[in-house]
């Protein structure tokens, strides 16, 4: 099946405290988004990558894309006011009867092995949502205070969330709802079951300066000891 990856990098990243959006900040000498794009080409040599960029930073994105050897297999789409709209803009460029990965443009530590794992499950079951177990104790706020949640029943959701394109395109053909926290929730609203696959603890979102420092160290180790992290 044809493969498409939508790398969603349409946000401005205000929590980072930087003028430049976090997807363009450097990790071990390269922009965060560069690693996201590279991981998909490392996984599949026949994939097309759609990069969704904020309107104000299209030129910055183009410069990064030009530095990638597979630049001819990359398409730029414009970001929307919400992540939902940004994904929808990317999906408009995806044909039916294919497999589509939807990946946060700030999860720069994603590996080709996770991408392939998601692909295999999506082909068999229609979708694949990477997730990891919660390791901290968890509590939920209630009307009377708060109460503990059994962490064994909780999963932390990651990307790339992967779907047969017919399923995800149909799901996004609806109005946005606040309950849509990710792409899986959009599909689930259409009555589809979602299937979890094992994610990776290092596949976290770059949100703060601390995340950036941790990603720098992990990427450095990966360069020194390939396959170890």
Textual characterization of the structure:
It is a single chain. With 229 residues, this protein is of the alpha/beta class. The chain is 32% helix and 25% strand. It has seven helices and twelve strands. It has helices at 32-43, 58-66, 83-91, 112-125, 165-171, 183-188, 209-224; strands at 2-8, 26-27, 30-31, 47-53, 74-78, 98-104, 127-133, 138-142, 145-149, 155-157, 161-164, 196-198. The strands form three sheets. Strands 1, 4, 5, 6, 7, 10, 11 and 12 form an eight-stranded mixed β-sheet that branches. It is globular and about 55 Å long. The relative contact order is 0.17. The model has no long low-confidence stretch (mean pLDDT 95).
List low-pLDDT spans: none
DSSP helical segment count: 7
Per DSSP, what share of the residues sits in E-state strands of 2 or more residues? 15-25%
- Overall shape: it is globular
Largest sheet: 8 strands, mixed
| Number of strand elements | 12
Question: Which structural class do the helices and strands define?
Answer: alpha/beta
Strand and helix order? EEEHEHEHEHEEEEEHHEH
Q: What is the CA-based Rg, rounded?
A: 17 Å
Distance, first to last CA: 30 Å
- Mean pLDDT across every amino acid position: 95
Query: How helix-rich are the residues, as a percent range?
Result: 25-40%
């Amino acid at each position: 099946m044809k493969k498409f990856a939508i790398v969603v990098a349409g946000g401005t990243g205000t929590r980072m405290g930087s003028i430049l959006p976090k997807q363009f900040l450097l990790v071990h000498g390269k922009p965060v988004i560069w690693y996201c794009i590279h991981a998909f080409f490392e996984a599949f040599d026949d994939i097309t990558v759609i990069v969704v960029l904020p309107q104000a930073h299209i030129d910055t994105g183009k410069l990064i894309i030009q530095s990638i050897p597979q630049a001819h297999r990359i398409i730029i789409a414009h970001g929307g006011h919400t992540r939902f709209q940004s994904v929808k803009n990317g999906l408009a460029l995806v044909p039916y009867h294919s497999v589509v990965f939807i990946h946060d443009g700030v999860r720069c530590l994603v590996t080709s092995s996770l991408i392939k794992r998601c692909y295999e499950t999506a082909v068999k079951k229609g979708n694949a949502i990477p997730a990891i177990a919660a390791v901290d104790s968890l509590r939920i706020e209630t009307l009377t205070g708060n109460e503990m949640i059994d962490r064994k029943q909780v999963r932390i959701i990651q990307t790339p969330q992967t779907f047969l394109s017919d399923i995800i395109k149909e799901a996004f053909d609806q109005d946005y709802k606040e309950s849509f926290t990710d792409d899986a929730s959009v599909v689930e609203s259409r009555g589809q079951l979602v299937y979890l696959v094992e994610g990776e603890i290092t596949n976290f979102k770059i949100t703060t300066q601390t995340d950036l420092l941790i990603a720098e160290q992990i990427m450095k180790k990966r360069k020194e000891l390939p396959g170890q992290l």
